[in-house]
Design brief:
By secondary structure, this protein is mainly β. It starts with 14 loop residues before the first strand and ends with a strand. 30% of the residues are buried. It has strands at 15-20, 26-31, 35-40, 45-51, 57-62, 68-73, 78-82, 87-92, 99-104, 111-115. The chain is built from no helices and 10 strands. The strands form 3 sheets. It has a 4-stranded antiparallel sheet, with no helix packed on it. The protein is globular and about 40 Å long.
């Protein structure tokens, strides 16, 4: 069994999604406080918070090539963010219920999502 080496406690409530960046010492988290947080795990701190969702965040993911994050929420939207400029670059709509997950395609310019 592993050993806890640190805790990252800044969300207000449960965290539902988390993802590591493939080449930088970063991870992204999203939770029930409607917030997306980008962390530097070597510095052991939150770098910044992205705001825009109006309900629980179910999943977050870094893009493998571009400085983007995709997030899916119970507010029935998928958002893409530029984490370097710390801005929301698009809001995708069309789901009629909670968006449970969303992911970037590893090579194509696509996002796939699923909802209830």
């Amino acid at each position: 069994m592993g050993t806890l080496i640190d805790r990252f406690d800044e969300h207000d409530g449960p965290v539902r999604g988390i993802h590591f960046h493939k080449s930088q010492p970063l991870f992204v988290s999203g939770g029930d406080d409607y917030k997306i947080k980008v962390w530097n795990y070597k510095l052991r701190r939150c770098l910044f918070t992205l705001l825009g969702h109006l309900d629980y965040i179910r999943t977050v993911q870094f893009h493998s090539e571009y400085p983007w994050i995709v997030s899916a929420s119970d507010d029935q939207t998928i958002r893409t963010w530029n984490w370097q400029s710390r801005t929301c670059i698009s809001v995708l709509t069309g789901h009629n219920h909670y968006v449970m997950c969303a992911m970037f395609h590893p090579k194509e310019d696509l996002i796939v999502s699923a909802s209830l």
